[in-house]
Design a protein that fits this description.
By secondary structure, this protein is an all-alpha fold. The protein has one domain. Helix content is 88%, strand content 0%. It has four helices and no strands. Helix 1 runs antiparallel to helix 2 and helix 2 packs antiparallel against helix 3. The longest helix is centred in the last third of the chain and has 31 residues. The protein starts with a helix and ends with a helix.
């Protein structure tokens, strides 16, 4: 649950900063990029919670498979949002490039902390 709160907080802060800097011109693009990336991060967190009881090797195998599925979701969501002109392509993709690595960093840090606690 702590991971979701951190991801949500970081997402809101970035949305506010970008809105303050660029105004409302790209507000929908920023919001939707943050939402797509946040859905991806929350899905990763839920999958990790489900798999954490498995053997480490099995867990990592399923996590990597889920990463492929989650990337496919991001690509599909990006395509649909751009194809139906819901967002402007450049601001949306640029903001996705901001949110995605940030959410992945937080997710990986959480998994690494869990792994360190498991060793002790």
């Amino acid at each position: 649950m702590k991971l979701n709160i951190i991801n949500f907080t970081v997402t809101i802060i970035i949305i506010i900063l970008v809105t303050v800097i660029f105004g409302n011109k790209y507000f929908i693009d920023v919001i939707l990029a943050g939402v797509v990336s946040l859905i991806n991060a929350i899905a990763g967190y839920i999958i990790f919670l489900i798999l954490m009881k498995k053997e480490f090797h099995q867990m990592m195998k399923w996590i990597f498979k889920s990463i492929l599925a989650r990337i496919a979701f991001i690509i599909l969501a990006t395509y649909l949002l751009i194809h139906f002109s819901v967002v402007k392509p450049i601001p949306f993709v640029l903001m996705l490039f901001v949110f995605y690595p940030l959410h992945q960093f937080i997710e990986i840090k959480f998994i690494k902390n869990w792994q360190n606690k498991r060793r002790n």
